């Protein structure tokens, strides 16, 4: 299973362009040239990186046209495809030092100084096949063909960019999942292992790290490997154990129903770490469910229930004292969708679902019936994954996607079960993942700008 899940996690193509001649043009001028390159495809299987090299041809510019009526510069690529770039976008994204701060990869040109109705005075193709533009005010811009190709406005290119940045491949699962497991020490000290871990975390939603020191505070080290942890009203880290006068149902020895953490926040944490320091002799098994898998099932079985859970705003609350005193209120849809109708996040914690319910009374019964079917699907044996954590294991999982719970355990006079937890935001995790990808590509002789 893991070979299927983890393959093709690191993939790069580097386009290099060498032109045979320089050229000044307005319309229908063609350069033909070819070049071979090698690319590295890293396949990660539980921390192992396999590097394969192969030769591929590079697409180059064949023809450039200025389409004054549409206000486009149209590039005809050697592979037969075309890309059209609006004048205003090209001027807005000039890469010269006056307009762009390379060290920060940030635009310097103020929008108030941008002529949104600009034309072009001249277009030329350099011997390096860079597209050179002279603007009516004599400002000069040059654009690398690889840079332009990646930013094509074609439907296919935009879809590829969306997938790379926002819609990576996901593997949905049920109770038969073999949880990806990696070495904690390898993740800390190997960039290949760290990248493999984060890619698997995004794709599968859960990864277990083995061999962490059995001592409190170790999650701080793991958090720093990525960037920084999310500070909440429960602190940077928090201790999951049976406590007197518990301020959270997790701090008891009773059963924890399947839930996502912190929907009482307007922006719930994206990733959660749980480090097992001590495990109870009986009970305390962890339960995990792929919430996105359940959403797909619900949409197939009962589209009306799915629509209700994706459209009804539910109130959540959390009040108490921990790191400091707090009184939280939020509204979320149980199933949150993105702007394209894709699954974005599950927001469900029955313990903190508020008794306040801001919908008409006539809609309440239908909501409860829909939520009940959603919960029933979660607890079907074929959908629920159960396992018992061992001291030294760190389970890392997607809190926007995975619902987790715990079976009841026996608690005596001493602390019989102790997990330490922490949160991170997906922005931080994805940032580290992209940075590691760039670093690994650079180490293999490649460079690629991800911004």
From TrEMBL:
InterPro entries: AlphaKG_dependent_hydroxylases (IPR050411), GBBH-like (IPR012775), GBBH-like_N (IPR010376), GBBH-like_N_sf (IPR038492), TauD-like_sf (IPR042098), TauD/TfdA-like (IPR003819)
Reactions catalysed: 4-(trimethylamino)butanoate + 2-oxoglutarate + O2 = carnitine + succinate + CO2
Domain TauD/TfdA-like: 181-423
Residue ranges occupied by any Gamma-butyrobetaine hydroxylase-like N-terminal domain in the UniProt entry: 67-148
Domain of life: Eukaryota
Listed PANTHER family: GAMMA-BUTYROBETAINE DIOXYGENASE (PTHR10696:SF33), GAMMA-BUTYROBETAINE HYDROXYLASE-RELATED (PTHR10696)
Full protein name: gamma-butyrobetaine dioxygenase
